[in-house]
Design brief:
By secondary structure, this protein is mainly alpha-helical. About 50% of the residues lie in helices and about 10% in strands. The protein has helices spanning about 1-10, 40-50, 60-65, 70-95, 100-105, and strands at about 15-20, 30-35. The longest helix is centred in the last third of the chain and has 24 residues, at about 70-95. The relative contact order is 0.09.
Length: about 110
């Protein structure tokens, strides 16, 4: 199967795919729902998914994402959690003192 080969090549994992199904409507980006033979295999793929961001192939690093199959409520909760983490990170970045120096000409020697 193509999905098994992709996972083996990009994530260095061996996964036995039970089924693969396209989701969504034709003409738009269609996600793939993939079921692995075991929860351990699925968990290993999800745990290794961040390696995709470091792929040497720009199409993979920018356009391929792997995540759990979540209900609509779980998706919303996960989205809200990501938004909170980003807001906290942005506040930390702005409060480290560097943010103000970048906009102060006297701070950069001008």
């Amino acid at each position: 199967l193509l999905v098994e080969q992709f996972i083996a090549d990009t994530l260095n994992l061996t996964v036995n795919v039970v089924f693969c199904k396209r989701l969504g409507v034709p003409g738009k980006v269609q996600r793939l729902l993939i079921s692995a033979e075991s929860n351990e295999q699925a968990g290993a793929v999800i745990a290794a998914a961040n390696k995709l961001r470091f792929s040497l192939n720009p199409e993979i690093s920018k356009n391929v994402f792997i995540s759990q199959d979540l209900t609509a409520a779980e998706q919303k909760a996960a989205y809200e959690l990501r938004c909170q983490r980003r807001a906290v990170a942005l506040r930390r970045k702005g409060s480290n003192g560097l943010g103000n120096q970048l906009h102060d000409p006297a701070a950069v020697g001008e």
